[in-house]
Design a protein that fits this description.
alpha/beta; OB fold (Dihydrolipoamide Acetyltransferase, E2P); Rossmann fold; 3 domains; five-stranded mixed barrel
Length: about 325
């Protein structure tokens, strides 16, 4: 008597891909052979970010996201209402500020703290070096950050402007063989930088906009651009921001994420020193001796209070 043999379920063929754009529940994925297609999550919520490596299954003309591979890192900001993720699996973040209008030091400091918390190397790009007086003022404002070890790259991002090409040469060396997120407030020159480094970027952005059906809202999306034909270097353009919440940072973590503060915490009398009022505080002594900028120390106190209040709830 013949026995019944159950039919074998065909094994699903997973494909690897890189998320290069995202809008709502849909993402644009670049496949291992260079094609680009729309993928969507199995559930209602999309958690895939630009820079994510994913596994996907073919579904008609697109695909479904089956797995997001483990991330090396993730840069995001968080306020009292929501969390906003920028991108994943970064080698570095280029924080772009401009000499004019005068940049917000608080925004810069917060972005640097977020990068430190995510273990992502930061660079500071100071745009509008062609404006001598505003640039000199902005450069002086950034001196404490140079002293902390952050590299400040002077830039003149103006299409056809004098000194533009020479200012880009030094930056290109820093971008080589790395995945770099360009971060900065609106008006800092991010779009100009992308267009100078990537010929045809506007056309590509339009194609992505059409593919994801984002219409004129593409500027609110995070987009991946290859800098070279060998696909070893990439820039990720992110939407501009006006606020940068750090509510994901515990107050006790803050000193270690500010290099100028952290350098002197070992000189404090008490191991749990808040560096605000305790006797024998090495940080406060460093401020008095001029080793820490009073402006930076004031910012530390304000941010510590903000994070302490946020973590009460």
């Amino acid at each position: 008597m013949p026995c019944w043999v159950p039919a074998l379920t065909p094994s699903l063929e997973f494909n690897s891909g890189l998320v290069v754009a995202s809008h709502g529940r849909h993402v644009l994925v670049e496949t291992s052979d260079g094609r680009r297609l729309i993928c969507h999550p199995r559930g209602k919520k999309n958690t895939a970010l630009v820079g994510d490596r994913i596994q996907w299954l073919a579904t008609g003309n697109g695909g479904s996201i089956e797995k997001i591979e483990a991330r090396r890192n993730l840069l995001y900001r968080q306020d009292e209402i929501r969390s906003k993720s920028f991108a994943a699996n970064l080698d570095q973040v280029l924080i772009l500020v401009a000499a004019e209008p005068e940049f917000s030091e608080s925004q810069l400091a917060r972005a640097l703290i977020a990068a430190e918390a995510a273990h992502i190397a930061p660079l500071i790009g100071l745009n509008k070096s062609d404006l001598s007086e505003p640039f000199a003022h902005a450069s002086l404002k950034l001196e404490p950050y140079r002293c902390m070890g952050y590299e400040v790259i002077p830039l003149a991002l103006k299409a056809g402007g004098a000194g533009t090409e020479s200012s880009l040469d030094g930056l290109k060396d820093k971008l080589h063989n790395k995945v770099t997120l360009v971060l900065g407030p609106s008006g800092a020159g991010k779009s100009t930088l992308i267009n100078l480094l990537i010929p045809g970027a506007q056309a590509l952005t339009g194609e992505i906009s059409t593919a994801l059906n984002t219409g004129r809202h593409t500027t609110t999306s995070t987009l991946w651009y290859w800098l070279d034909d060998s696909h070893h270097s990439a820039l990720i353009d992110s939407p501009g921001f006006q606020e940068f919440g750090l509510h994901h940072i515990e107050p006790v973590q803050l000193p270690a994420l500010m290099p100028d503060i952290q350098t002197h915490t070992g000189n404090c009398r008490f191991y749990n020193c808040t560096h605000l009022h305790e006797p024998g505080c090495g940080v406060r002594a460093a401020v008095e001796l001029g080793h820490i900028s009073p402006r930076r120390y004031e910012f530390y106190g304000e941010l510590l209070q903000e994070l302490s209040q946020a973590n009460r709830y």
